[in-house]
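Lab notebook, page 48
Experiment: co-folding of the full assembly
Goal: obtain a model of how the components sit together before planning crosslinking
Operator: M.T.
Materials (sequences as entered):
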Amino acid sequence: MADLSTNPATVRPDPSLGGLFVAALKRELLLSLRRKSELVNPLIFFLMVVTLFPLGVSPEPGFLAQLAPGVLWVAALLATLLSMDSLFRSDFDDGSLEQLLLSPQPLFVVVLAKVLAHWMLTGLVLTLVAPLIAVMLFLPAEGMPGLMLSLLLGTPTLSLVGAIGAALTVGLRKGGVLIALLVLPLYIPVLIFGTGAVQAAVTGLPLGGYLALLGALLALGATLAPLAIGAALRISVSG
Amino acid sequence: MRFCAVSAVPAGCVICCCPSEVDVSFESFSEFLSMGGHGLYVWLSYALGVVIILSNLVAPLRAGKRLQAQLARRLKRENNRT
Amino acid sequence: MADRKASDRKWLPRWFYQLASPRWCYQITGKLLPVFSIAALILLLGGTVWALAFAPADYQQGNSFRIIYLHVPSAILAQSCYMLMALAGAIGLIWKMKVADMVAKSCAPVGAAMAVLALLTGAIWGKPTWGSWWVWDARLTSMLILFFLYLGVMALNAAIESEVTAAQASAVLALVGLVNIPIIKYSVEWWNTLHQPATFKLTEKPAMPVEMWLPLLVMVIGFYCFFAVALMLRLRNEILRRERRAGWVRDLLLSK
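Observation: model returned without errors.
Model output:
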């Protein structure tokens, strides 16, 4: 009788926070990678927006080189913004978001994993591709490390803050421009310090201060944004 | 030109014994209007201020009247029906 | 319910829970409106006359300096109103008070109007001072971003159909904005020093003599009174609209 074991499938240890995080992350990445065609959209948008500036203003190298840090950052910001709407929408539509809110698992961890997965597929990819596109805007080679580092530190913050907007509007049928309206003012500090870092790199000034500020914004976002996102999700789902 | 700070009458009128007098910053009314060349900017700003303040007072008042009339009408309809 | 709440939180005064009653709020605002209206009228009219005719002109900027008597009060109001909106939203979220939600919703348009006035007067002031109809200086840019935050809250409130959900979502957004305001201010100021070697600021606050800041104080208080009036007017409309099914509203409407 002593070795009468219960069905092993029903005896499961409680998942640790780390395990929960990794599981949620894996789920998000798996679901997103199933729709590969949608992954490349932010990249194409990024490239197209960057192309608009020489076409709309002037293709002269000196002029574009001056514009490059700002244009690259604005384009990355807009590409991230456009991809935010889909963060929670598919889960909301099929009801799994509601299940998530009802489950006893801490929402903070799951939300953080979702945003991280989103960033890995948009912001991180933009960071890696940005130097190639920066060549089209004649950004000097000295500016490339600044560009990549600032985007690396800044785009996660953009994803976190954008997720707040996505969570607030997920209950609406057409979130689109409204998310931009809500989130763009909050993006401005990241934009200012991000372009500042790239310009400092171009002119040979030290980058440390800007990167520290971007890191501080990221730390603030990573700790506070999931709380706001969780609250917004509960409000949107219950409404 | 000097005014009484308390009663705002021109100083020199014998109506009140004035404790303190203040100076108007302008010599003449036309100078007041032109504001030393900056008349357009000053008067435009104050006109905008008046417009914005008044519209923020008038709009809720009118909306309130409309709202109360509408709700009263609906109530009377419901009362007549029952 | 009221008894349980009173015993749970003895540290909150009774009037705090009275505030939660829309009917009580309607009555008290009815009594406060005439007081604040008269105060606003006297202070604003008196302040304007003082600012235009009696206050001294600035040594450097001449008479265009008089625009400060509109610009600074409206800027102060725009910021205070946002804080009130976020605070009311937080109270509505935490204590689920309908009246707090209504106050937050009523704040937004007034605050946005104040921000617009601050922006317009700031821009107009820039023309005689710096030669162009708009300057990207730190304070004007921060005010513009504050205006965007107001627009975001108003847009979100309008987009959600359920009133309770809309109030809660707007409250979350207002609070997120509130946390961001110091960050935005700091970053815009830093950005401004990078791109414009510092000349002089638009308002030289520490160096203002009494004859200059006394009318400014009068205008600021007058603007606050005006804000109270505008807020109460909108709040009363909102209360009537949301409580239209209540008995006291029906009696009120039928008695007119």
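Interpretation: Chain B has a mean pLDDT of 81.
Next step: discuss with group before ordering constructs.
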